[in-house]
Amino acid sequence: MIQGIKRRFRPVSIIILAAMWVLLVGQLTIGNVAAGLMLSLAVTMLLPLPAMPVDGITVRIIPLMALLAEFAADMITSSIHVAAIAVRPSPQPPAAFVVVPMRVRDDLIFSLAVTMLNLQPGGTVTDLSVADRSLTLHLLDGSSPKAIDRAVGRIEKLEKQLITIFETPPQRSRKRKGTP
User: Fold this and answer.
1) Which domain holds residue 21?
2) CB 112 within 8 A of CB 161
3) Which position among 42, 61, 147, 158 has the lowest Cβ density within 10 Å, counted as fewest Cβ atoms?
4) By percentage, how much of the chain surpasses pLDDT 70?
5) How many domains does the chain have?
6) What family does the entry list (predicted)?
7) Is residue 173 domain-resident?
8) Are residues 75 and 161 in the same domain?
9) DSSP class per residue in 53-92
């Protein structure tokens, strides 16, 4: 039982939840901070989340920073593209549904890819198959094969970046010199 309590006690989560409470209330007072700490302690102890399945996941920081910078830039350009489609006087381009296979091995990374794709304007993941590792996406602009190929290329690039950042290559058997 003590071990379960130790696992549930997460100081960083408690501090973040308390800060969110103070922001929600709107006043920084000792009483609000104390109430936030007590409330966040109660939430983390009485309503624990399961542990994240992070066994075997490594994070490569430099590629992660590159991905975040590129994601921010893509967010801006895709927002401008969607806004241009919305305000132009011509009719809306035809939409498209595409199925894209994903090669990520870990379920957590697969769900991260889905989340990142859903956050970007211009496309939405409408269905996913964990067993087949494939995504069905609704693309706002399916006006030409070039537009569809461009969207699929962005997805494949995201997939490669996530594999580079989070997944370790399969272990190769190493032979020592002098051994058959």
Assistant:
1) 2-46
2) no
3) 61
4) 86
5) 2
6) Belongs to the CPA3 antiporters (TC 2.A.63) subunit E family.
7) no
8) yes
9) --TT----HHHHHHHHHHHHHHHHHHHHHHHHHHHSSSPP
